[in-house]
Structure formats: C-alpha cells, structure tokens
Amino acid sequence: MSEQREMKEASPGYRTVTIFVAGIAVIALVALVTVGVLQNKPLPQKYKYGIVMDAGSSHTALYIYQWPAEKDNNTGRVTQTDSCRVDGPGISSYASNPRGAGESLGDCMLKARQAVPSSRHGETPLYLGATAGMRLLNIENASASDAVFQAVEAALHSSPFSFRGARILSGQEEGAFGWVTVNYLDDRLTQGQETTGALDLGGASTQISFVSARFDGTESPHNLMTFRLYGNDYNLYTHSYLCYGKDQALRKMLALQTASGPTSLSDPCFHPGYIRTRDYSELYASPCVARSKPQASPRNFTLKGTGDFDSCRTAVKKIFDFSKCNFSRCSFNGVFQPELQGSFGAFSAYYFVLDFLNLTDTSAPMETIKDKLREYCATPWADMQRQHPSTKVKYLAEYCFSGTYILTLLTEGYNFTADTFKEITIIRKIKGSDAGWTLGYMLNLTNMIPAEAPDAPPAAPRRLRVHHGAHGPAAGGPSPLHHLHPQQDSVLQPAQDRMS
Ligand SMILES: *[C@@H]1O[C@H](CO)[C@@H](O)[C@H](O)[C@H]1NC(C)=O
Ligand SMILES: *[C@@H]1O[C@H](CO)[C@@H](O)[C@H](O)[C@H]1NC(C)=O
Ligand SMILES: *[C@@H]1O[C@H](CO)[C@@H](O)[C@H](O)[C@H]1NC(C)=O
Ligand SMILES: *[C@@H]1O[C@H](CO)[C@@H](O)[C@H](O)[C@H]1NC(C)=O
Ligand SMILES: *[C@@H]1O[C@H](CO)[C@@H](O)[C@H](O)[C@H]1NC(C)=O
Ligand SMILES: *[C@@H]1O[C@H](CO)[C@@H](O)[C@H](O)[C@H]1NC(C)=O
Ligand SMILES: *[C@@H]1O[C@H](CO)[C@@H](O)[C@H](O)[C@H]1NC(C)=O
Prior knowledge:
The protein has a domain at 44-168: ATPase, nucleotide binding domain (Nucleotidyltransferase, domain 5, 2-Layer Sandwich), CATH 3.30.420.40. The strands form 4 sheets. It has a 7-stranded mixed beta sheet. The chain is of the alpha/beta class. A hairpin with a 4-residue loop joins β1 (47-55) and β2. The protein is built from 17 helices and 17 strands. Bound molecules: 2-acetamido-2-deoxy-beta-D-glucopyranose (NAG) (7 copies). The site of one 2-acetamido-2-deoxy-beta-D-glucopyranose has 3 residues, from loops. It is found in: Membrane, Caveola; Membrane.
C-alpha cells in the first residue's frame, strides 16, 4: 500500500489529477444536493423495504424488513428494522365484527408509514398471512372468515404500500418458512452447511420442521417440502398440528376433564388457590373441541387449581394419542415423524413461556427443569399475583399449564430425550430479526433467495422453488394474491392437519 502510494506520488501529474478529481466530486455533490433541495426530494434511499403481517390466533404483529437498494436483484442481506404488535386479539376473534379486524391494524400501519421513508412507500410490498386461528374460523364458519378477510384487505388496500394480498398459510408453509427464516438468519443456506430444525408454537397450532437424511418423502409424502436454495437441495420434513398450539391444547385438556359435565373441576395445571368460573359454551366454542361437548351440562363450572406438576403432566399427556401408527414410526395422532436429527431452534411461544419461567437454559439437566416447574406450579396463586403484579392475570394463570405442555410436547410428543433436549436452543431473535415464518415468506414471494449459488450459471429460475409432496400444489401453487377458499384449503392441508 505504502509502496503504491510512493509510486503514485512520485509520478509528476498525480497531484494535479487528484485536485481535479476532488474538484469534480465536490461540484457533483453540490449539484446533487442542490437538485435534491430545489425539487424538495430526499436523496436516494440506501434501502428497500418489505412488510409482512402475521395474523396469529391470539394477536397480529407487523414486521418491517430492509435490504440494501444497490445490490443486484435484491441479493443483499435482509434484516428486520422494526416491528409492531397490534392491540387487541387476533383477526379471527372479529368474526361477529369484521370491520373491527381492519380497524385494529390502524396503529401499526401508521407506525409502518413513519418507519419506511415516504419515497419508498409505493414500491414497498405488504403481505398479510394468517395462520391457525383463521384456519379454525374457516372450518367453523367460512363466510365469517371471508368477511374478516374482506375487511382486512380493504384496510390494507387503503395504505400507501403495495399491498400484495392476504391469505391463510397452510400448515406446511408455516413450518417451512419458519425453517427458512432461522437458517437464512444463521447464514446456513449460502454455505450449504448443516441446517437447524425449527420448532414453532402458536396459540392454535404448532410446527416441527427439520432435514433428516432418512426422509425423502417416500413414506409420508405430504410431510415433504423440497427446496433448492443457493444451489443446494433440501428435503425438509415438516408437520403442523392444528389444535396443538398452547391455547387450543389447554381447551383440549379442559374438554377431557369436563367430559361428564361437572359443576366444579380440580385442575392440577393451575396454582393452588386459583379459582375461576368458566362457561361451558365458551370453552367448547372451537372446532378443536366442539364435537366432545357434553350432552348435558350446567352453564358454568368452577375451575379450582391444585398446582401439581406431575398430575398436570398426566392430564396433558391424555390429549396425545399414541395408540395408532400406520408408519414405521410416529410422533402422535398417527402422524409420521422421522427420527430427530441435528440441532433445533424453538421460538414464538416456546420462547415467551420458557423465558417467563426462567427455563430457557436447555443445557440444564431435565430433572432440574422439572423440579423448577414443579415448584413454580405449586406456588399459591396469591403469591403469584403478588410477585407479578404487572403480568396480565390470564397469562399468569396459564404459565404452569403452558410450561408443562411444552415439556410434554417436546419429550413425549416429539421424542426429545434428556440428551437430545440439549440440542434445542430457545430463541426469540437471531441477529436482531425475530424468528418466525414471516421473513421466509417474504424472501420467497419477493424471489430474494436464488435457487442457484450467485456464481453458478442460472440453470433454474431465480426463485425459492418449493414443491409439495403428492398432496401439495404443483410448482407455484395457488396464487399468492388471494387467500384460500375452503375447498382449496383441503387440497393444501393433509388430513391429519385439519383436525385432531
Ligand atoms: C438479475 O436478473 C436478471 C433477470 O432476472 C439477469 O439477467 C441478471 O443477470 C441478474 N443479475 C445478476 C447480477 O445476477
Ligand atoms: C357465521 O358468521 C356470520 C357472521 O359473519 C353469522 O351471521 C352466521 O350466523 C355464522 N354462521 C354460523 C353457522 O355460525
Ligand atoms: C354462570 O356465570 C355467570 C357469570 O360468570 C353468572 O352470571 C351466572 O349466574 C352463572 N350461572 C350459573 C348457573 O352458575
Ligand atoms: C391406518 O390405516 C387404516 C386402514 O387403512 C385406516 O382405517 C386408519 O384410519 C389409518 N389410521 C391412521 C391413524 O391414519
Ligand atoms: C425469573 O427471574 C427473574 C430474575 O431473577 C425474577 O425476577 C422472576 O421472578 C423469575 N420468574 C419466575 C417465574 O420465577
Ligand atoms: C426416540 O428417540 C430414541 C433416541 O433418540 C430412538 O432410539 C427412538 O427410536 C425414537 N423413537 C421414535 C418413535 O422415534
Ligand atoms: C413462493 O412464491 C411463489 C411466487 O413467487 C409462489 O408461487 C409459491 O407458491 C410460494 N411458495 C410457497 C410454498 O408458498
């Protein structure tokens, strides 16, 4: 470097050239700024943006992503710059007031308008994806779910962004895009490194996705998603269990406990001293449990907590059916699952529940985790409320159940053992971006992950190519611009996915 510099300085014309170039640069800069100021236009923005709304069963969240504008064909790194949690419940709760669903998004849309430079608004894609809450509403009352979508679409169409449609994601898409997100953020795709499995837990469904050397889709084709990313092929195993998100799982457990229609219930999954009146018709107002509603029951029952972790585990275990399996091996409910392989990232409610319980350290011995949960569940309700005055009572009441459910799902359901449990990392964010399906979804719809490695000849279209197994849509699948109609939903959804 210094040698080169000496050579240049030794050459006679160098100084003149330098001054000349610097002068031109200054003039150009002044001209650029002047034009910008005169025309009252901001200088070119460094970044492009994309927005995805995650319409979950319990709430809606908005994520804003950015990537360098100057990179060719949007190959620059995508990161999350902002997020916003919509106040109030998920859009599926607005079945009797669809307009409310659209209105609920207003505050977050305003925040997005402020976060994205206005010169970029018109070109910024905006997507809304709904998951299991809307899958359930669609099963329960398709016209109500259509009305909710219409209201949401009207609200998003009136935003300054380039609205590209609202639709229900299939369970496979939700699982697969979560897996893409985690591995993209971890930089495991460009290098063709070993990938991380993804464990996602929501309110109404839960997903497990991982690459297994022993799984090529022959045994259970609808659990297969194949990807070609940066020149590497992946056979991804993925399954979404509808009704096994933490809120619907709680309903299922309560439904089994109240099958005979009692007036009171002693429940080990709630703290001692916890007491609450529950309405039968409210508890059973979900397709996950509707069919098991007792023929004759009073209007209410009294739920009394006893705070016993071990009995709670026994009660939780009953919502899993281990009795039948038509494959070489199953997780539960007759669903095929290959042997677990590699490391896993667990996010969404896995994170929020285990973080609250201070149990995110999966390297701790399983017995220690159980002991802590046992102690937690046994803590009297009055003490809980005293210790956590700012936590919403509904959430505070359900952490004992949720923690026990997570442990049971992972160990009994998915077959994580004391050893393989250590392969799970509980994550919220990776390098500042939330783990979840939204980023993977946007990367696919904006063609931001090439099928081929950057230097390879473009043998395949520059797109994240996703093929389903026998039951999936052919290459391309349904138009991403429209949400699914009920009859199409049955094409995308494997039978086990629909109901328990
Ligand atoms: C960008 O995409 C276009 C067409 O999609 C292609 O012709 C061009 O080679 C790509 N550029 C780079 C740098 O990959
Ligand atoms: C479905 O929802 C609509 C409101 O959007 C309501 O009018 C109708 O009664 C519901 N149907 C059933 C069967 O619940
Ligand atoms: C059921 O609970 C509601 C309020 O939670 C109460 O008004 C009603 O009297 C209760 N009904 C019975 C039969 O206990
Ligand atoms: C297993 O196969 C039998 C016979 O083909 C069928 O009746 C049953 O529903 C299947 N069970 C599951 C869990 O898929
Ligand atoms: C988790 O740890 C924090 C800090 O040590 C403590 O304040 C909080 O009460 C703990 N939460 C639970 C549920 O034990
Ligand atoms: C559960 O995991 C153990 C140990 O990893 C393995 O030996 C066993 O085959 C697995 N069982 C099923 C049903 O996958
Ligand atoms: C990925 O995006 C394309 C459109 O670019 C779409 O046709 C395809 O269905 C998407 N894949 C999935 C699994 O949604």
